[in-house]
Amino acid sequence: MATSGGIDFNDFITKSVALLQNNTDILTKYRNIYKYILVDEFQDTSAMQWELLKLLTEHSGHITAVG
Question: Residue 5's pLDDT is what?
Answer without folding.
Answer: 79
